[in-house]
Amino acid sequence: MKPVTFSQKYIRPILNAKMIGIDMTCGGGNDTRFLADHIMKVYSFDIQKEAILKAQSKLHDYHNITFINDSHSELDHYITDKIDVVMFNLGYLPNSTSSIITKADTTIKALDALYKHLNDKALVSLIFYRGHDGGYDEYYKVLRYIKDSPYKILEHYQEYKDPFEPVVYILTK
Ligand SMILES: C[S@@+](CC[C@H](N)C(=O)[O-])C[C@H]1O[C@@H](n2cnc3c(N)ncnc32)[C@H](O)[C@@H]1O
């Protein structure tokens, strides 16, 4: 099973129409659409204007998405609600010429800022892509942060045993 399939399958049963969620890495908007199909309101962050503009035009029929063209590490400036579900699909935007990738320091800042906004049973999914330059470094540092943080790891999934393959972590408070 692909990591994104695992993440969505894990999260799907808890979703309901009263919930509020965050897609921390909008990219092509696939996770944003997945969340927007099932919950009341979605905040969707991407640091790349190009990604936000494309996702906005693809998802123009949805009225429950707030797109934010800023780093997820700045989430305190935008999030005013209690949050039930969060998705991080880390790494780089596929099929793009951009070299922008997510990085350990901003991913950690986002997780750190996020904790106080979460409802008690909130789920946070992180997909780490470890094969690109910087990918393993991000995985290693973020995981070290998680293990020393108040987050609890509920689940960990990888399709293959290769250490450079993607891996999914599901966290809660
Ligand atoms: C793997 S892609 C996301 C794929 C996306 N969820 C989808 O459904 O297509 C990672 C995205 O994270 C974005 N990104 C990188 N650093 C970021 C940051 N600090 N804050 C928010 N987005 C960031 C990149 O611009 C890229 O679009």
Question: Can I get a quick summary?
Answer:
This protein is α/β, with parallel strands linked by helices and 173 residues long.
Instruction: Report mean pLDDT, rounded to a whole number.
Output: 96
> In percent terms, what proportion of residues is strand?
15-25%
Regions with little confidence, pLDDT below 50 for 5+ residues: none
Give the total of domains: 1
Count up the helices.
Answer: 5
Query: Which cofactors or ions or other ligands sit in this model?
Result: S-adenosylmethionine
CATH architecture grouping: 3-Layer(aba) Sandwich
SSE layout and pairing:
Blueprint (H helix, E strand, L loop, with lengths): L2 H9 L8 E4 L6 H9 L2 E5 L3 H10 L6 E4 L14 E7 L14 H11 L3 E11 L6 H13 L4 E6 L9 E6 L1
Parallel strand pairs: 1-2, 1-4, 2-3, 4-5
Antiparallel strand pairs: 5-7, 6-7
The protein binds S-adenosylmethionine.
What does this structure look like?
The protein is of the alpha/beta class. It has one domain: Rossmann fold (3-Layer(aba) Sandwich). It is built from five helices and seven strands; from the N terminus they run H-E-H-E-H-E-E-H-E-H-E-E. The protein has helices at 3-11, 30-38, 49-58, 104-114, 135-147, and strands spanning 20-23, 41-45, 65-68, 83-89, 118-128, 152-157, 167-172. It has a seven-stranded mixed β-sheet, sandwiched between helices. Helix 4 links the parallel strand 4 (83-89) and strand 5. Helix 4 runs parallel beside helix 5 (135-147). The radius of gyration is 15 Å and the shape is globular. The relative contact order is 0.18. Residues 25, 27-31, 45-48, 51, 71-73, 89, 91, 93, 100, 102, 106 line the site of S-adenosylmethionine.
